Amino acid sequence: MAKRVAVVLAGCGAFDGSEIHEASAVLVHLSREGAQAEVYAPNIPQMHVVDHVKGQPMPEQRNVLVESARIARGNIKDLATLDVKGLDALIIPGGFGVAKNLSTWATQGKNCSISKEVEAVLRAFHAAHKPIGLCCISPVLAAKIFPGCEVTVGHDTECEQWPYAKTAEAMKELGCRHVNSEVTQVHVDARNRLVSTSAFMCNAPIHAIHDGIGTMVREVLRLA
């Protein structure tokens, strides 16, 4: 039978929701591997809306579930209805929506809180020993919830290729172990069944980001 994988989105757009290329890559690679994706998002207001041309907030309000439905082509469910019993794995793409809508990482860093629904879902998969795939900024969710876990967001030394490398240091302060990796690589925390990859934390060609996410998806399915 096909593996059933929950994909949790955080809106639609790199700066205020799920990173669209990452979400699309997850869905493409799941399809290629013969897995069935079931897309979810919390039915909550976004923290704010960003004009992706100007890179500045806009004076309007949007809903995370409604915006995520754009990526899912309308085939999406309220995160509150997710039942871990019928699912084999969980994947959360990145994008600033993870740090703004699924958590308060964008404004509070290491002192952030995680959305109650998102935390409950992560803990349910973890308790059931079912694998969790994370890319870009979404490993911060695991770092906050599972002290001592191992994740990667790429490199921990800032440079042109790794403009967000300070994130790794902030995550270490939460008590997790950060493992440096290249954009096409993943890190597997076998004990916690976490698979992470850097994606757009790296200033890399989009095909390399797509390939890294593919590796993450395959490792998640291998563990499922």
Short description:
With 224 residues, the chain is α/β, with parallel strands linked by helices. The protein is built from eight helices and eleven strands. The strands form three sheets. Strands 5-2-1-6-7-11-10 form a seven-stranded mixed sheet. Strands 3-4 form a two-stranded antiparallel sheet. Strands 8-9 form a two-stranded parallel ribbon.
Secondary-structure blueprint:
Blueprint: E1 4-8, H1 20-32, E2 36-41, E3 49-51, E4 56-58, H2 64-71, E5 77-78, E6 89-92, H3 96-100, H4 105-108, H5 116-127, E7 132-135, H6 139-145, E8 150-151, H7 166-172, E9 177-178, E10 187-189, E11 194-197, H8 206-223
Parallel strand pairs: 1-2, 1-6, 2-5, 6-7, 7-11, 8-9
Antiparallel strand pairs: 3-4, 10-11
Low-confidence stretches: none
Rg calculated over all Cα atoms: 16 Å
Q: Give me the side-by-side strand order of the main sheet.
A: 5-2-1-6-7-11-10
Number of helices: 8
Structural class: alpha/beta
How many strands? 11
Average pLDDT metric? 97
CATH topology assignment? Rossmann fold
Please describe the biggest sheet, giving its number of strands, its sense, and whether it closes into a barrel: 7 strands, mixed
The SSE string, one letter per element, is EHEEEHEEHHHEHEHEEEH
CATH architecture group name: 3-Layer(aba) Sandwich
Strand content bin? 15-25%
N- to C-terminal separation?
12 Å
CATH class value? Alpha Beta
Can you give the helix content as a percent range?
25-40%
Number of self-contained structural domains: 1
Overall 3D shape? globular
The CATH homologous superfamily is named Class I glutamine amidotransferase (GATase) domain
Protein name: GAL3B protein
InterPro entries: Class_I_gatase-like
